[in-house]
Amino acid sequence: MKFNELKIQKNILRALREAGYEQPTPIQQKAIPPVLAGRDVLGCAQTGTGKTCAFSVPIIQRLCRTEGKSGTVRALILTPTRELALQIYENVCQYARYTSCTCAVIYGGVSQVPQVEAIQRGADILIATPGRLWDLMGQGIVKLGKVECFVLDEADRMLDMGFIHDVTRILDKIPHRKNLGLFSATISREVMDIAWVYQRDAEEIT
Ligand code: AMP
Fold first, then answer.
1. Which of 19, 25, 56, 85 pairs as cysteine with 50 (C-beta 3.0–4.6 A)?
2. pLDDT tens for residues 88-99?
3. pLDDT of residue 47
4. Does ligand 1 come within 6 angstroms of the Cβ of 53?
5. How many CA atoms lie within 13 A of 79 on its CB side?
6. Is the pTM value of this prediction over 0.85?
7. Residue 130: CA atoms inside 13 Å, Cβ hemisphere, count?
8. How far does the centroid of ligand 1 lie from the alpha carbon of residue 120, in Å?
């Protein structure tokens, strides 16, 4: 299979080609079509399988298609650690480089000033760790009222690290969400609980 068989638009295909991607990995083949169609996805996948591209490419394409004030957060990717947040940010910037989509990354343990400046310059896609996100939401700097797509990455790790409360209160602040992607290396009871409460008719992918 080739990426163009997944109905990915040319400007994103070009970025994938330049990244050296020749063929979609199995998780990309399975997850890209339902995420593009706006469906909820419950994906059992570890780091190294290509899951970042699997959820971010269709999100970039959907944001390019839909009307919306550019620069307001319309997609949120929540991940447990600073390292993962930075890695996802770099990948998303790479895939979106020939589109008008902008992105920003926020995480704790460092000064918030450059992160706030990046958000104020405008970000369609925000990659965040839960604590810093909740903090900036409390300060009125990040607003999630326009978020359409939400991805919970490494959900099991997020729960193991004690972020369950942050995650659910962030989810509860996104009223008009159209799709939720939940990705986890293991689908534990706690991950299933989130899926039951927050997902509708999710496509299950392993
Ligand atoms: P991830 O599982 O998202 O952390 O991706 C693991 C690594 O695989 C990253 O370095 C990606 O750049 C790379 N990658 C993702 N998708 C593909 C692909 N279709 N072909 C080649 N490399 C890929």
1. 25
2. 999 999 999 999
3. 87
4. yes
5. 22
6. yes
7. 22
8. 30
At 92, give phi and psi (nearest 5°): -65, -40
| pLDDT tens by residue, 31-63 | 999 999 999 999 999 889 999 999 999 999 999
Cα separation, 200 vs 27, whole angstroms: 20
- Three-state SS sequence of the chain: CCHHHHCCCHHHHHHHHHCCCCCCCHHHHHHHHHHHCCCCEEEECCCCCCHHHHHHHHHHHHHHHCCCCCCCCCEEEECCCHHHHHHHHHHHHHHCCCCCCCEEEECCCCCCHHHHHHHHHCCCEEEECHHHHHHHHHCCCCCCCCCCEEEECCHHHHHHCCCHHHHHHHHCCCCCCCEEEEEECCCCHHHHHHHHHHCCCCEEEC
**Identity at 187, one-letter amino acid code:** I
φ/ψ region of 8 (left if φ > 0, alpha if ψ in -120 to 50, else beta) reads: beta
Query: Residue 165 C-alpha to ligand 1 middle, in angstroms?
Result: 31
Tokens of 179: 């799709």
User: Tokens standing for 11?
Assistant: 């400007």
Residue 182 has pLDDT above 90, yes or no: yes
The pair of three-digit structure tokens given for residue 53, joined into one six-digit string: 């591209």
**Residue type (1 letter), 168:** T
